[in-house]
Design goal:
Blueprint lengths: L1 E6 L5 E5 L4 E10 L4 E5 L4 E4 L10 E4 L1 E3 L1
Antiparallel strand pairs: 1-2, 1-6, 2-3, 3-4, 4-5, 5-7
Amino acid sequence: MKVMLREDSSGKLTVYVPKKDLEEEVVKQVDSETGKIFTLANGWELEFSNLPQPLKLPQTYEARRLA
């Protein structure tokens, strides 16, 4: 799914999912074998592969929701 990563006014990383009209703060970031896993404040886990370092924000990236 396509999601937008950006920083809010306090500098925290947030994720916006347009199809769900959902915006949540990233509360945890973990490196995995295939990329990065972001845990959102609502409990969702999104996996990102091929994220550039450093992140260019705001930007739309492809993510996969983990069960």
